[in-house]
Amino acid sequence: MGLESIIKYCITSILILSCYGCTEKVQNVSENPIGEYVYFDQYKCLHVEGRCLKLTLTEDGVRPNFMVTRVPTIELRYLENTCASCVTDKIYKDLEEIVESNNEQEDSISVE
Fold first, then answer.
1. Over the stretch 9-48, which tens digit does the pLDDT of each residue have?
2. Helices marked H in the chain — which ranges?
3. Do both 6 and 16 map to the same domain?
4. Domain check: are 27 and 37 in the same one?
5. What residues contact 65, with CB distance under 8 A and at least 6 apart?
């Protein structure tokens, strides 16, 4: 086994392992339930994962984003823009139910 073969093996191994890490991270994000808080970035895009890369980094993907608004899930009253990375279809449906429930509770408090 020559030096060239060793280098190709190392590069291939690194690429495979780095792709495996990406796949695992995406699966973990999609399996996460909606937590106590949801997060809005500077563009009013809703995220359910506080560690979502689209939330934590600016548009250039390098600098950290410090303009994040944390909102308790029980205070969520509307859905407009949602993150395509951390809000799956199932999570979106769950969020719709939460918003509907929150609005019903607010209506019942207003009537009383």
1. 767 767 676 665 444 444 444 455 799 999 999 889 999 9
2. 3-31, 53-56, 89-111
3. yes
4. no
5. 41, 42, 55, 56, 57, 58
